Amino acid sequence: MSSERSRDIYWRLSNLYFWFFALLGGLLPYWSLYLQDQGYSYLQIATLMATIQLTKILAPSVWGWLGDRSGQRVRLVRFGAITGSLFFAGVFLEPGFYGLLLVMLAFTFFWNAILPLYEVITLRTLGSQKEKYGQVRLWGSVGFIGAVAGVGGVLEVIPVHYLPWLLLPVFGGIAVSSFLVPSEKGERKERAPSGSLKAIVTNPAVISFFAMNFLLQVSHGPYYTFFSIHLEQHGYGKLPIGLLWSLGVLSEILLFLVMHRFTRHLTLRHIAVGALLLSMVRWILIAELTDVVLVLIFAQALHAASYGALHAVSVQYIQGYFGKHHHGQGQALYSGLTFGAGGAVGAWMSGFLVEGFSTSAAFLGGAVALVLAVFIAWRGLESPPGDR
């Protein structure tokens, strides 16, 4: 591949990551504040926020299966981008709690199809240059930071009620960028040996991998659902809230740039256990020392461990264990069982903890989930084939 063509492919792949995570940057930090402004209770907010994760249980498996069977992943990504955007428009009808619940379920079912399919597209397009995945993926983090800071700054001068309007241009960016990725040639999946997928998912090490990631995402439930509300309760404005979210993702970008150095000297298992321990520290600091700005800054820098390192490790686990025959289904299971089921359970349980106690109690609950995750990773996790 020529250097000019390589650069062209790099920017085409990076573009959708930028816009996809820009939408997350406008949605995750501020959607709970928007819902609070609309008058919903903490438990209703947790339920609505959980839908963002809930549809990941089913959607990636459906779309991953279609992608593996047809080979038309790029077309499916385009379909998900456009259809998801159309369903999101239902928010402007202000349909009430149950109506909004249906709108978010429909919107996220198509929107959550995009990333697992696109991860497979990216890795296959990179081919023998898979080490460039981190450089491509970091543009998602750049998009997230830009949206968090930009939307936070705008919301300092206009009411949060207008948040859905601020997200519209980002939906346009996702739709346009989905058409910049070169179309695939309808490559169909080779028939894998019968029963091979069952053998993979019943491997004790693979079960431990999914259990660890499930608990990791349970621990993130309070963060993605109530972190902004938690900061607002402690006197932080919307721009400082946005900057703190951005700091977390900035640390993630820096981690992606140097991740290859860690994998040269440490096994994926050791990286995973270390990152889980740092994540536990992060939730405790946010729960107990929110008013100490320097401590909060340090806690947000640990996002490099709780998301960046563990996601990069997990992508390599999926590749190592599932191989090319079941790569799409492996990616879908990872998204559904961890980000989907784990994230939804974490968001919902955090709603009960906040409703009954406080936002700090929810973060401490997340730390407790990681105690079990560390035990599972230490005892049951094994490095995938090819890892030293």
Automatic annotation (TrEMBL):
**What are the alphabetically sorted keywords of the record?**
Cell inner membrane, Cell membrane, Membrane, Transmembrane, Transmembrane helix, Transport
Q: Which NCBIfam families match?
A: mfs (NF037955)
Q: Which organism is it from?
A: Marinobacter salinexigens
Protein localization? Cell inner membrane
GO MF assignments: lactose binding; lactose:proton symporter activity
| Superkingdom of source | Bacteria
Question: Its topology with respect to the membrane?
Answer: Multi-pass membrane protein
Record-linked PANTHER family: 3-PHENYLPROPIONIC ACID TRANSPORTER-RELATED, BLL5896 PROTEIN
What is the official name of this protein in its record? MFS transporter
Q: Residue limits of the Major facilitator superfamily associated domain?
A: 10-364
Transmembrane feature ranges: 16-34, 40-64, 76-93, 99-118, 138-155, 161-181, 201-219, 239-259, 266-286, 292-313, 333-354, 360-378
Statement: the UniProt record of this protein carries the keyword Lipid biosynthesis: no
Gene Ontology, cellular component aspect = plasma membrane
Q: Which InterPro entries match?
A: HcaT-like (IPR026032), MFS_assoc_dom (IPR024989), MFS_trans_sf (IPR036259)
